[in-house]
């Protein structure tokens, strides 16, 4: 099973992804780290001060190196909802209260413009909208407070009874 965890930066994707992977003994994949290590980027965005990830290259790499069926794979990235629907079994979208998200982004020392851009993305539920447009089965998880990961894993198992998780 392939689970993509997506959401606006700062909403808790990484923490949730790692907790799910630990709970189910799955394989955790950090797309940002993977893209950097495997040179799956398309340059650097000076304005946003980050690498531009080539989602198509990432998808091809994941298909080649993490095939379906061996174990559950948790893909952590604010771009993971852009992976093909045929590859992703479930897309978990993390959301967060705007005040808390603002605090988290300030702690990351994001600039004013980058904070505004990410708050706008959260207000408009951009990741959720794009995941739905891409045809993904979705679950939305609010990470403002601590998430019941055992309950979430139970919900995933109930949604996908034929999958081994």
Task: Walk me through what this model shows.
A 5-stranded parallel sheet has the order 2-5-1-6-7, with helices on both faces. It has a two-stranded antiparallel ribbon with strand order 3-4. Helix 4 runs antiparallel to helix 5 (112-123). A hairpin with a 4-residue loop joins strand 3 and strand 4 (50-53). It has 7 helices and 7 strands. The radius of gyration is 15 Å and the shape is globular. It is α/β, with parallel strands linked by helices and 165 residues long. The mean pLDDT is 93. It has a single domain (2-155), classed as P-loop containing nucleotide triphosphate hydrolases (Rossmann fold, 3-Layer(aba) Sandwich), CATH 3.40.50.300. The N and C termini lie close together (7 Å).
Keywords:
7 strands, five-stranded parallel β-sheet, single chain, globular, 7 helices, Rossmann fold, alpha/beta, two-stranded antiparallel ribbon, 165 residues
Total domains, how many? 1
Q: What percent strand? A: 15-25%
Specify the helix fraction band: 40-55%
Low-confidence regions: none
Q: What CATH first level would be assigned?
A: Alpha Beta
CATH superfamily: P-loop containing nucleotide triphosphate hydrolases
Spell the H/E element sequence: EHEHEEHEEHHHEH
**What is the count of DSSP helices, taking H or I runs of 4+ residues?**
7
Quick structural overview:
Helices cover 43% and strands 21% of the residues. It contains 7 helices and 7 strands, in the order βαβαββαββαααβα.
